[in-house]
Every structure is written in C-alpha cells, then in structure tokens.
Amino acid sequence: MGETSQNSGKESGQRLEQDERQKDIMRKGCAKTALWTVPVFCLWSLALAAHAFAADDGVVKLTGHGGPIKAISISTDGKRALTASFDYSIVHWELSDSEGKIIHRMIGHGSAVNDVAFVPDQQKAVSVSDDGSLGVWDLETGKLIKRIRGEPFKALDVAVSSDGRLAAAARWDGTVRLFDLTTLSETFVLEGHKGNVNAVAFSSDGSLVYSAAYDGQVLEWETATGRFVRPVYRHGWGINSISILDDDRLAFGAINGAFGIVSISRAELSSELTKRERPIQTVKVSQNGRLVGYGDGEGRIEIFDVASLTAIEAATVTYGPVWDFDFLPGQAKVFHVGLDDFATRWQIAPRKLSKIESKFPRRFQRVNSSDPGELEFLRKCSVCHTLTPDDGNRAGPTLHAVFGRKAGSLPDYIYSKALLDSDIVWNEETIGLLFEKGPDIVTPGTKMPIQRLKSVTRRDDLIRYLKEATTPKN
Ligand code: HEC
Questions:
Q1: Which residues fall within 8 angstroms of residue 424, CB to CB, at 6 or more apart?
Q2: How far is the CA of 397 from the centre of ligand 1 (A)?
Q3: In the chain, which end has fewer C-beta atoms inside a 10 angstrom radius, N or C?
C-alpha cells in the first residue's frame, strides 16, 4: 500500500498480525478475505487472458452499485435479490425474466458491506460489514431497523437460521457472533478458532451452527447455549466458504483450491470434488439441494450434480474473482458478482457462450499513468470517488468542484455526522492536512477509511492533479 497507512492506533497490533496474514495469502494466492487492493494484484496473471468467454442467456445485469459487489442472495421465490457492495450500500432488487429493478438502496453501514441474507418468511434482511456490525433491515421500507455494533473488526459472512430467529456472523477477530433476531441483540460470542473466521452456516433445524476459518477448521457449536460441541473437519489450508447440503453433509471451499464435501456425523472428508490450485471464494447449494458449485479467485464457476457428485458445467464468467453467486430457484441459472459494479446472470443449461461484458481494466484497476498525481488518485481514491458530476457518488461523494466546498455539503450524498458538523472548507491546504494526519485525526468520526500519505511530493502531486481534474470547466 506504499505510504498509505491503514492502521489505527489501538488495533494496530492486531492489524499488523492481519497484515502478515494478508501478505501470506498474497504469496499463496488470492483470498476473498484480502483488502480490495489484493484482487488487483491477483489480476496480473489474468491481464493477458483477454479472450475469456462467459456463458449467458442474453446478458441480464443488475446495474446500480458504485463499486465492486461482495455478495448476492436470491429470495426463495426467485423474485427478489439482495446485493452487498464495497460502496457501503445494499440494493434490494425485483427480478423479472429479463431485468432487475431497484426496490431500495439501503444505506446505514459505515464501511464496505461483505454479505447480506434474507430472513425467511419475514420482510427483513441481515448484513455484515467491514465496520464490524450486524445490520437488520426492513425490506418493506428499505430502512435500517438496527445496527448491532461490534468492535471494529471486519465481519465477512452472515447466515440466518431457517426459522428466521437467529443470525450468525463470521468475524476477523477469530469469533463467531450469535444474534437473536426477535430481541435484536447479540446472544453469544463463540471463541475457539485460531485466526480470522470466514464463514458460518446453520444446521437445517437451527440447533447447531458451523464455522470455518483461516486455521483450516470447521467447528460445530450449539446455538441455544453457545457451547462448543466438536471439530468437524480439519483442512491443511484456510477455508473461505461453507454451505450445508443436507443433515449430514457440508460443502467447503479452501484457499488452496480444494472443493469438497464433509460428512458431519463422521467428522471426515467424504469426497474431494476438485482441486485446481486457485483459491475458492464461495460455495453455494441450490435451494432444492440438487446442485452445488463454487466460484474461484480467477473467475471460474463450476457446478456439480449432488446425487452423482459429477461436474455438469464450468465456465470462466468474469475477469477477476467470483466473490459470490446464487442460484435462481427452479432454473439452471445463477447470478454472480465480483469486481464489477453489476451482477450478471449466467444460464448454466442449456449453455450458451458470449463474450465477457466487463471492461478491463476496470476504473480502479488502472495502475499506469505518466502523471504521478493521477497515479496516486487511481491507486488510492478512485475506487470510492469520481471526479465529474455525471459519474456521481460512489462510497464517497464526487470530488467534482471539491476545492472551495464546505465539508459535508453535497445535498445528494449521505455524510457522517462528523463531516456534516465540520467547519472545514476544502482547499490545497486542508486536503493536504487530511492525508498528512489522516481522516481519523482531521475529521474524527468520519466514514472515510484511515489512510495517510506521508510523502510530501506525492501529496503535492495528488493535490495538483485533483485541482486540475475537479475544477469545473466552462
Ligand atoms: C474506501 C473508500 C474511500 C477511499 C479509498 C477514499 N475516500 Fe474520500 N471519502 C470516503 C467517504 C465514505 C467520504 C465521506 C466521509 C463522511 O461522510 O464521513 C469521503 C470524503 C472525502 C472528502 C470530503 C468531501 C466532502 O464533500 O466533504 C474528501 C476531500 C476526500 N474524501 C478525498 C479523498 C481522496 C483525495 C482520497 C484518495 C487519497 C480518498 N478520499 C480516498 C471514502 C473514501
């Protein structure tokens, strides 16, 4: 990350440990758990593969986010979807055969949203974010019912029990948190993993919850008491994703590319379906339990028939990682998400081929410019900010005409209280200070991630470029 520092004082020890782990992952491959910069790193190898093809059925896209999409979840009737994005928002979609319409854009997390799930039989959803909290949403109104705060540790995965009473969140502080959705409170902190917890899943009756982590273990817990029951599986590498197949079987995907099925009662591997030495990012089971599949770090989705445990289809559907996908019930179709700011539908069968739609490189993947200031902007700001009025807001407000703007004053952007209450007027000096000292010092309480640019030359280059690129021309 160059001189950009993402450490905050009190958690820096822990963060350092995470940084070490992240570096470790980068050496081994790409994990879904890494920072947003990591996929960029991972794409080097893909940059040359300009002729990948995806299968589709007339390309149905869900377009509306301002950044990469981390997760997608489709309702049991197949009529609605939820997407969680790096742009801090969740979008609730109404699906038809040919398109997706936005019902609500749901804003309330203070950081990237990593996962979202429907609460069965209720007009509600739950989400988890880099801000560490669990969001509970009213899908009728699109409003946040409650944000149950945790300490500032990433929460990566969320699951809901089939009766809609409980939620579980997988967190990077090594714990699983259990929540009671009736009382809207945290009930238990499940401690036992060594390392970041990446995934959680409930047993079909909701009495047990399974968790999987960087330590390569799948652990079983009792939801009524929070008691640790037993280890169910130990894999040599970190596990990124798990999904329940039936009362005795659980599918998992690991950082070393292993995708397999574990027998829960026997607590052992029952079949290894594939191992392609690319990190598996996500594992999904169709709602009728007949299909299971994975999405990997290099854009591949592979689907298996559960009865025969044979591969039935595979395709490279995108450039970069498949962070998540979900099956449309009763149809051989999935929606997948990753570095693009839209979700794409892929018809598995009958399979048709067409060119991958995403632009490459995506705006935040450009890493070359002869202007050093533009280079800083592309690397450190462009994932969250645009420079022109027509491109609008992303996770952060547009920086168009930011010089001379009073902090927190754009009418169509939802700022934190910190910026709304601030008296700062943005100019060369104040923006310089913002990245010399860090947004946490200059605008305490801001949603903007902690980052510092220590080099005076690079700061000056960035500010000169920003001024050129954001000053209205007429
Ligand atoms: C991960 C997302 C993210 C990145 C990266 C990021 N920002 Fe921001 N930025 C935000 C958010 C969110 C806000 C709004 C903060 C708030 O409301 O507290 C913001 C606010 C700002 C503001 C105040 C604008 C206003 O209208 O008051 C400026 C200036 C700014 N960012 C500049 C930058 C620059 C320059 C960079 C690159 C060095 C950068 N940001 C990188 C998310 C980001």
A1: 406, 407, 430, 442, 443
A2: 7
A3: C
- Encoded tokens for 441: 């010092």
Summarize pLDDT for 114-127 with one digit per residue, the tens.
999 999 989 999 99
Q: How far is the CA of 83 from the centre of ligand 1 (A)?
A: 23
What fold, for 14-25+56-347? Methylamine Dehydrogenase; Chain H (2.130.10)
DSSP for 217-229, please give it.
EEEEEETTT--EE
Task: Judge if the beta carbon of residue 337 lies within 6 A of ligand 1.
Answer: no
Tokens 């919850």 -> residue: 209
What number is the average pLDDT over the span 425-436? 96
The residue whose C-alpha atom lies closest to atom 27 belonging to ligand 1 is 407
Q: Ligand 1 pocket, 380 CB below 6 A?
A: yes
So where are the chain's domains?
14-25+56-347, 363-470
Do 363-470 and 14-25+56-347 fall under one CATH topology? no
Rounded Cα gap, residues 250 and 144, in angstroms: 32
Residue 454 CA, ligand 1 centroid: distance in Å? 17
Residue 269 is predicted with a pLDDT of: 96
363-470 under CATH 3.90.1150.10, yes or no: no
pTM for this model (two decimals): 0.74
Tell me the CA–centroid distance for residue 455 and ligand 1, in Å: 19
Residue nearest to atom 6 of ligand 1 (CA): 381
